């Protein structure tokens, strides 16, 4: 049942923004937010190898965990709905209604609220025992779909780019730019590039969250050298922190460039790119691929704040 053959459509678009043109830098956006009406973003690619493993083991569906705005659970529930397999989600915190949670319910995901303490226990030995007993036919997926399997699922992003370069009118490209949370997607690109092009990761979390060791661990496990990428802090002081400068930047970029951004990942990543471009960190004539990793479903809960902060003053 879980044998899913689906190659999402490739959408690559040039990004027309004044500050890019002024610096002579070209950006093409790999729109993972447009792969499907229900499933959006990088999370599908991280899930695909887990789905394949589940199919090999004869499982019927997947169970995973996340917060009440989780892009990961949203993609999993949407995939379950789209391809007709059962899903269960273990949620952090106390029961609450968010646009994400309402979608999870609509998609038919079985939800369980673990509280905060219960959620913190997710790394303990035996955590999964009770859930395995309750859902013997569901294959467990680690939080966010991380690790080497998730990274390997993201190596196809390079193939997607190569198949779409011509549509962009580009003879080649000089590197990747993307938001990093756990660094799994970035690690997948580094594996796919094997040193051919640099991968720049704009960290949506403070550097102290251990992204660098996580990326290194994935590369080491894959037998690759720890090279070919760079991480920079784009968190603006904390995960999911939204300030007026970021809000204004997102609204302005959308108006000018026509591409919707989310405040947690893609907005911060593009703002970090502008800062690099403006301080001369990106050579004139560069052609960069910006990965739109999705996240727009999570933006709904922040829409009002985004407008309020972004249009003030
Ligand atoms: C999860 C997520 C990321 C981060 O992906 P990692 O593989 O954890 O680095 C980036 N952007 C969006 C929109 C996400 O949902």
Automatic annotation (TrEMBL):
Q: Which cofactor does it need?
A: pyridoxal 5'-phosphate
- Gene3D superfamilies, per this entry? 3.40.50.1100
List the molecular function annotations (GO) for this entry. Answer: D-cysteine desulfhydrase activity
The N6-(pyridoxal phosphate)lysine modification is found at: 43
- The question of whether Acetylation is a record keyword is answered with no
Q: Which UniProt keywords apply?
A: Pyridoxal phosphate
Q: Which residues are the active-site ones?
A: 70 (nucleophile)
Q: Belongs to which family?
A: Belongs to the ACC deaminase/D-cysteine desulfhydrase family.
Indicate what this protein is called per its UniProt record.
1-aminocyclopropane-1-carboxylate deaminase
């Amino acid at each position: 049942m879980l044998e899913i053959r689906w190659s999402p459509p490739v959408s690559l678009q040039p990004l027309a923004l004044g500050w890019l043109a002024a610096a002579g830098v070209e950006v093409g956006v790999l729109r993972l937010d447009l792969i499907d009406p229900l499933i959006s973003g990088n999370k599908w690619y991280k899930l695909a190898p887990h789905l394949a493993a589940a199919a090999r083991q004869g499982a019927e569906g997947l169970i995973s965990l996340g917060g009440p705005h989780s892009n990961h659970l949203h993609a999993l529930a949407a995939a379950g709905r789209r391809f007709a397999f059962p899903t269960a989600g273990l949620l952090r915190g106390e029961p609450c209604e968010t646009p994400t949670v309402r979608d999870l319910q609509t998609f038919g995901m079985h939800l369980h609220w673990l509280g905060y303490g219960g959620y913190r226990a997710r790394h303990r030995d035996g955590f999964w025992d009770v859930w395995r007993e309750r859902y013997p036919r569901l294959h467990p997926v680690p939080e966010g779909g991380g690790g080497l399997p998730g990274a390997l699922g993201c190596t196809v992003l390079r193939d997607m780019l190569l198949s779409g370069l011509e549509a962009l009118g580009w003879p080649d490209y000089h590197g990747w730019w993307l938001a990093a949370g756990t660094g799994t997607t970035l690690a997948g690109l580094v594996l796919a590039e094997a040193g051919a092009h640099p991968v720049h990761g704009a960290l949506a979390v403070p550097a102290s969250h251990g992204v660098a060791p996580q990326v290194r661990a994935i590369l080491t496990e894959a037998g690759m050298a720890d090279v070919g990428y760079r991480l920079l802090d784009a968190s603006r002081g904390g995960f999911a922190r939204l300030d007026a400068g970021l809000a204004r930047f997102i609204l302005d970029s959308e108006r000018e460039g026509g591409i919707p951004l989310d405040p947690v990942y893609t907005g911060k990543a593009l703002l970090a790119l502008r800062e690099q471009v403006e301080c001369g960190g990106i050579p004139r004539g560069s052609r960069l691929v910006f990965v739109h990793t999705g996240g727009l479903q999570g933006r709904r809960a922040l829409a009002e704040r985004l407008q309020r902060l972004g249009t003030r003053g």
